[in-house]
From TrEMBL:
Annotated source species: Gilvimarinus japonicus
Ranges that cross the membrane: 103-120
Protein name: Uncharacterized protein
UniProt keyword terms in alphabetical order: Membrane, Transmembrane, Transmembrane helix
């Protein structure tokens, strides 16, 4: 995944995202990823999602007739995006499941220690 800054894009970046997609380059404007709670991305621009397509994308900025070396079909782009979302969902589900288990055991251990301390103190 490589980034093209808006300042390096001659014209409207959203039009270039459309051009890239039309030419078979998997790309998204970073505004599609932004969340109101997270302002870590100071720059605006286009993410070229496959590193192998970055050079073609930069050439298309100046030469719209450029033929992309490894274009993806719309179906391939849809499959890649869908599979990436599935993988992210599985990874986050697994992470939060492990986190919940560990948190449960920590609370259980702390509760047992607290009760044990008060039972010993009372006797």
């Amino acid at each position: 995944m490589k980034f093209i800054d808006d300042r390096d894009i001659p014209g409207c970046p959203f039009e270039f995202v459309s051009l890239f997609t039309e030419k078979g380059i998997l790309a998204k404007h970073n505004s599609e990823f932004q969340n109101a709670r997270f302002h870590y991305m100071e720059k605006n621009g286009i993410w070229v999602l496959l590193n192998t397509q970055y050079e073609d994308a930069t050439i298309l900025l100046t030469k719209s007739s450029h033929k992309v070396n490894e274009p993806l079909s719309q179906d391939q782009m849809s499959i890649l995006e869908r599979e990436a979302k599935k993988l992210l969902y599985r990874a986050s589900s697994r992470f939060f499941s492990v986190l919940a288990k560990r948190l449960f055991y920590i609370v259980l251990l702390a509760g047992t220690a607290y009760l044990g301390f008060h039972i010993i103190k009372a006797t």
